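Re: your question from the hallway

Yes, I did run it. Sequences:
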Amino acid sequence: MTELTVKVVEILATMAGLPPDQVTPDTTFESLSLDSLDLVELTLMLEDELGVEIDRDDFGELVTVQDAIDAIASTDALAA
Amino acid sequence: MTAAGMATSEVVVTGLGAIGPGARGAEALWQVVLDGKTMARHDTELEAAGVAVTISCRAPSFDADAELGPKASRRIDRYAQLALLAADEAAGHAGLAGGAEPERLGIVLGTGGGGFETWESEYRRYLTSGPSRISPLALPKALANTAAGLISMRLNAQGPNLTVNTACGSGATALLVARDMIRSGAADVMVAGGVEAGITGLAAGAFAQMGALSRNPDPATASRPFDVDRDGFVLGEGAGVLILERADHARSRGARPLAVLAGAASSADAHHITAPPEDGRGARLAMVNALAAAGLDAADVGHVNAHGTSTPPNDTAEARAIRSVFGPAADNLAVSSTKGVTGHPLGAAGAIEAVFSVLALRDQLAPPTANLEILDPAVALDVVRGEPRATTFQAVMSNSFGFGGQNTVLLFTTA
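Structure:
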């Protein structure tokens, strides 16, 4: 897993109140009872931790944890 | 039932829930009030925030995630957490699960400020880091109406749902509105109450700047309603929730009525934005109209749970108003302010004190007014002090007044 994946999984697990090993890239947000507001929170936390800006405009429909990782990774600062 | 029949429906209380200074649970909090010892303590958070007044009456701590779900502490402001705990207790007490049709079960909640903590922390983020750092949860957490929404989700209450604000009268006003909704036929059962979590740097600082808070350095004697040496109120916090129900609905499902919410009335001082008129005429009008709404004479009331904040202007104006309404019958009235014990829980006060009023009626006890040593000579009333007073009464009046000159008076009678 990349550093980004590890961070995302760690934050989402904390948000959902689960141990990190119960969250994988295939986990759906629906199964974690997390909604679009939580995803914006996730990006704010990542921005704080990674010191980058994440463009939230391209997020579209995110179903799984991997979808979120891909969307975040595609933002300019992290793709560079 | 005809519309006219509904308009005369009796509204009963079938459940109680409360969390407040010193205790969680309606019965436990009532016991704290009967014990008559102030819950005011030195407040290290207010001290750290640099507020000039560092005394408060806080509710006991709790594990929000364990009690309200794993996301509660992150997604729900403390004000709504308190409301949810009190609503859970009241709904359980009333045996509401399966006892009310979801579309006929409504909610009215009162709060003065809603999510103070969230407004303050998010505004700080906005100022230090800009709008792009504001949490997407800021509004769902901070708005004053979302606690009622969260309770509806928790209890699957799909009926009328709203939040009212009459500042420190909010909790009582919520009960007034909920009673009217049952009487108008809009709902069979209403979850109604008030909540406040306003012991924060900004809110406490603002009250201190007004001169509304006691500057007494000793927490033990700071909140002293009706005492000649009172010098302001002590901030409290908490939530009170009552289940109100049409009497025949309660009967048909076998729920035991604890009391009747026999009358309620609202009025405005039309005088000053924070200070009451010296003769308390707005409070008087609400008391008179509540008695009329209940079809009671002043002499029928044996106990008043006064607003009694411990501010110099409130307590004398309220005392004059009570004396004026009750006349000679005031001599037989046991008047209490429970704020000597609890401090002033602002928008929760009217609902927490409604809980106390129902339990006072049940136990036939008027609670003591903590820290009342020398009665203000301008207060021509029999204010209970020291020990709870055993007395016989069929009706109790609960007064709540808010900034803006907004007054709400409730009358409970034995079921």
